[in-house]
Structures are given as structure tokens and as C-alpha cells.
Design goal:
Blueprint lengths: L7 H7 L4 E4 L5 E3 H17 L7 E5 L4 H13 L2 E4 L6 H11 L3 E5 L3 H11 L6 E4 L9 E2 H5 L14 E2 L13 E2 L28 E4 L6 H12 L3 E4 L5 H11 L3 E4 L1 H8 L3 H5 L8 E4 L6 H11 L3 E6 L5 E4 L1 H6 L6 E2 L3 E6 L12 E7 L5 E2 L3 H5 L2 E2 L2 E2 L3 E5 L5 E6 L4 E3 L2 E3 L1 H9 L4 E11 L3 E10 L7 H12 L10 E4 L13 H5 L11
Parallel strand pairs: 1-11, 3-4, 3-5, 4-8, 5-6, 6-7, 10-11, 10-12, 12-13, 13-14, 27-28
Antiparallel strand pairs: 1-2, 9-19, 14-15, 15-16, 17-18, 18-22, 20-21, 22-23, 24-25, 26-27
Helix pairs in contact: 1-2, 2-3, 4-5, 9-11
């Protein structure tokens, strides 16, 4: 079978006995079972008072409940608000209140933060549900109560809903990215067509491995699209490098969404461990969300072959894509614009720059716009016509390939010279004693800023003055003097979320306490 019926619901009706999902505990779910659970949840949400255009939030680990919530929202005209389960109560409360979520579904693992959030947001007790192992979770009704007694039949008035992700933001509170609802039936939405950009086709024995948290925009988009074009989904809950290799070999996984941090940790496994798993079924190991050091990417291509592919995008929309062949011809590129997107580089005065000139990267989508929920000023800001930017700096070459330099907010200006941390971090990560690293500017009386490195030492390499000296000497051999860190501090664990995104502001802010950054 080469063409999938349009969308999961049509497929589930046509072939309810097909295995479509493997839960983190190894349990296999058929299309019919997942479809029935989705319908019951829609009826349960309707009974809780939700109607088309309403929102509900989830603070959940990767699991069947998260996928069921996604499918329920997208066939009931609702907005699903995925919440990062690493956030604390006040942060979750902001998202719940700002989104107007009428129901909050959490897991017993995150109940303390979710309870504090629900209390602060003023969410009624009737709208709080928790997934648990059987015991009652204080402050929440059992998730089973949301489903109990609800029919497995499709709901009336089925209409396309959407996912409303909240951007992490560089300053201030996160904002929800809200897209207008089309009012069309779900089957008319072509929810799986997105993967065609990357050459991934319906069925073809494809198996998608979810190895990062589903609350991340791209992770849920890739996984949902894969399900809608007939691929089986394998879910990981907590990512571990060897566990990922085991699942890839066991289920013959063909595509996945990754981040460079995962590459780095996979490559750190002993050679005999890496060699013991067959990963040859992988066709598309697509990575994004953070810069990938060149030596890390080359090592992954040497190991996994040309399935290692890269994209650049934003939660708001737009993007670029580079195959391994593209990258090997143009090392460092994040690709050319998607067919449904356009890229441009503008200067600070709003003038479009020619190829080869550094400026701010802007994108636009041909498939529709977006707005930041309850924030017209932010929606209007950082736009030039139909183009928008998230603040990245880059260059387009003559062939339309994009090369990123860094984010404006992270750029270091020392003695009037622009310095890009990503290049420094790549040099730091090439040292065998460095497990993770960050570079940023700290105050300097004469230069404005000087380069600071913060390092998470690799196992077996004690942090201290001797290691700092060796790291600085290593950088001196690889970077121009003005780019080299002037000092190294150590942390036990780098503050990253599971998607690989570095919370650089948490590292940088203590050095700027009481002072104003010049950028």
C-alpha cells in the first residue's frame, strides 16, 4: 500500500487491527483501540464543558495519554496546550491562565507543580485530572473519570483543532502561538503532508521513534504527521542513549527527530556498545533546535550514514532543510527554504540583503499566519511585511543555502567586535574532557564584554584549575585570540531542557547582576 487514507481516523476505520503505537512500557496499541480512546476523551471534554475553540492543557510525559490528547484536539476543534513538565508551579500557572485552558490533565509524577499551578490559575476542581497508577492524586480527579461512561463512537460536528505551543522567549513571559481554526473536517487538513518536505512518504514500512518530549513543537509535529500517514510510532519516556539504540534495532525504526545533544551523548558511548546495535534501518535522523558542531555531525554521518539530516525552523512557522549530501557539500549550512516557506536576510533598517551579507534571518509561510495570544504588540513586532524573525543572525549564499551565526541576544560584542558563541562552543565540545559547554559575554570595564566559558566536565575528568588551563589551551589552537574564552567555570550539569535547548540566560545572568548588558 503506497497511499494512506487521509488521516489517522480514516485509517483506523479502514484497518482497526493494525498496530500503530508502542507505548514506553512496550505495550502495543492498535489503531482501533487508540481511535476509541480518542473518541472517549473528546466526549469527556465535551461533558466537562469544552466547545469548539476552547483550550485544554496537558502536563504529561511521553505516553498514550499525550497522543490521545493530541488526536482529540485535532478532531474536536480544540486547542491543545502542551506544557513543559520541567516548569515550576508559577510558570505552569501562567500558561494555564493565559491560554484560558478549561481543563488541565497531568501525571502523578508532576502533580505537585501542576496542583500549585491549578490553584494559582484558579482552575475549578471539575477541570483537573491526573493520570496515576491507581491511587488518588491529591487535588485532582482520576483521569479515568474523564473517560468513564463515554462512548467510543466518533463525536458529532468533527472539525479540525490545533496545537497551541508556548514559546520559551528570550525575555519576559512565554506567549502562545495561536493559529485560526479552519472549520474544515480533519480529513481535509493533510496533517501528514509536512513530512513530504523531508522525503518521508506514507506507509512504506516506516516506523517513527519519538525520543524527545512531545511538549516540544517539532517533536509533536513530526510524530503526529507520521501517525497520520500510516507510520507506526514508538514512544520513549526518558531518553537514554543506549535505550534509543536498543529501540532502533528492535523496532527497525526508520525516522526520528533529534537534537545535537543526543548526538554528542550517543557518540560518547563505548565503541563496543555502539557496534552491538543494528541501526541500518534508519532513513531520516532529522535534527534541529540547536546548533550542531561540525565534528559531531561528521562523526554521526560516519556512523549512521547519509540519513543524518538537518532543518531550521521556528514554532511560529517557516524553515529550511539540508540533506547530508547538501551539508557535506556546504558544511555548516542548515539548508534551503522549504517549498512552503521563504527565507530572507534583512539589515537593522529593514533592507533586504544580497547573498553573502550577514543580517537577521526572516521567514514566511505560504500556508497561513499566526498571532501571539493576547499580545498584539509582540505579534506586530519583528515583522517586515509577511516575514517574521525570531532573532537569528545568518547569511544566504548564492544558491539559497542558509548559514546561521547565532542569536542576536547571545552575540558577544567585545571591543566593538561581534563574536558568535556557537563557534566557541563547537571548539569547547571538541575537547574530550568536555561533556557540555556554553560561551557568553560577561562584563569587562574596557571591552564591554569578554568571553566566558562554562563547562560540564566529562566523567573521569575532575573539574578544576588544571582542566580549565587545558581547555583554554585547546581553544587557543582552534580560535582567533579575540574569540577565545578568557576564563572557564564549571557546573555539575548544564541547564538544558530534554530537547537540547540551553537555558543560557540562567548561566549568564549572575555575572550581570546589577549591570545592564550592552546588547
Amino acid at each position: 500500500m503506497s497511499q494512506a487514507p487521509n488521516g489517522f481516523w480514516a485509517q483506523a476505520t479502514a484497518d482497526p487491527d493494525r498496530d500503530v503505537l508502542v507505548a514506553p512500557d512496550g505495550e502495543s496499541w492498535t489503531a482501533g483501540r487508540l481511535h476509541a480512546a480518542t473518541n472517549r476523551l473528546v466526549h469527556g471534554l465535551h461533558a466537562a464543558g469544552l466547545r469548539r475553540g476552547d483550550a485544554f492543557a496537558v502536563v504529561l510525559p511521553n505516553g498514550v495519554e499525550f497522543f490521545t490528547a493530541y488526536l482529540a484536539a485535532t478532531q474536536a476543534g480544540l486547542y491543545l496546550v502542551p506544557v513543559n513538565h520541567h516548569l515550576v508551579g508559577p510558570e505552569i500557572a501562567w500558561i494555564v491562565a493565559d491560554s484560558g485552558a478549561k481543563v488541565l490533565i497531568t501525571h502523578e509524577r508532576f502533580a505537585d507543580a501542576a496542583r500549585a499551578a491549578a490553584d494559582e490559575a484558579g482552575l475549578a476542581s471539575e477541570g483537573r485530572f491526573a493520570v496515576g497508577s491507581g491511587s488518588t492524586v491529591d487535588g485532582f480527579r482520576p483521569y479515568a473519570e474523564l473517560l468513564d461512561g463515554q462512548p467510543e463512537s466518533a463525536p458529532d460536528g468533527r472539525t479540525l483543532g490545533w496545537v497551541m505551543n508556548y514559546t520559551s522567549g528570550t525575555t519576559g513571559r512565554p506567549r502562545g502561538i495561536r493559529r485560526p481554526l479552519s472549520g474544515k473536517p480533519p480529513e481535509e487538513s493533510h496533517l501528514g503532508g509536512f513530512l513530504g518536505i523531508f522525503g518521508i512518504r506514507p506507509f512504506d514500512d516506516n516506523v517513527h521513534l519519538v525520543c524527545s518530549p512531545l511538549y516540544h513543537t517539532a517533536v509533536l509535529q513530526f510524530a503526529g504527521a507520521a501517525l497520520h500517514i500510516g507510520h507506526r510510532i514508538v514512544l520513549m519516556d526518558r531518553w537514554q542513549p543506549e535505550d534509543m539504540l536498543r529501540l532502533m534495532a528492535t523496532h527497525r525504526c526508520t525516522h526520528t527527530h533529534m537534537v545535537p545533544t543526543q548526538f554528542h551523548r550517543l557518540l560518547a558511548l563505548p565503541d563496543e556498545v555502539r557496534a552491538s546495535y543494528d541501526v541500518s534501518a534508519m532513513r531520516h535522523a532529522i535534527h534541529g533546535a540547536a546548533p550542531c558542531p561540525e565534528h559531531v555531525k561528521r562523526s554521526m554521518i560516519d556512523w549512521w550514514g547519509n540519513c543524518v539530516e538537518e532543518y531550521y525552523a521556528a514554532s511560529e512557522g517557516g524553515g529550511a532543510f539540508a540533506t547530508a549530501e547538501d551539508w557535506l557539500k556546504k558544511p555548516g549550512t542548515v539548508g534551503k527554504a522549504w517549498p512552503i516557506s521563504e527565507l530572507a536576510v534583512f539589515d537593522d533598517d529593514g533592507n533586504r540583503l544580497p547573498p553573502g551579507e550577514l543580517g537577521t534571518v526572516y521567514m514566511k509561510m505560504s500556508t497561513g499566519g499566526f498571532s501571539y495570544h493576547k499580545d498584539e504588540a509582540k505579534t506586530a513586532k519583528n515583522r517586515i511585511g509577511e516575514f517574521f524573525t525570531v532573532g537569528d543572525l545568518g547569511v544566504l549564499d548564492e544558491d539559497g543555502f542558509l548559514f546561521l551565526r547565532d542569536r542576536k541576544i547571545d552575540m558577544i560584542i567585545s571591543g566593538g567586535v561581534n563574536i558568535y558563541p556557537a563557534e566557541i562552543e563547537s571548539a569547547l565540545l571538541s575537547h574530550p574532557a568536555v561533556a557540555d559547554a556554553a560561551a557568553f559575554g560577561i562584563p569587562h570595564a574596557d571591552w564591554g564584554e569578554q568571553v566566558k566559558a562554562v563547562v560540564e566536565a566529562a566523567p573521569g575528568h575532575p573539574a578544576g584549575e588544571d582542566l580549565a588551563d587545558r581547555i583554554l589551551a585547546h581553544c587557543t589552537e582552534r580560535l582567533a585570540g579575540y574569540k577565545c574564552p578568557k576564563s572557564v567555570d564549571f557546573v555539575e550539569t548544564m541547564p538544558r531542557d530534554p530537547n537540547g535547548k540551553l537555558y543560557k540566560r540562567r548561566l549568564r545572568e549572575p555575572y550581570w547582576e546589577g549591570q545592564e548588558r550592552p546588547v
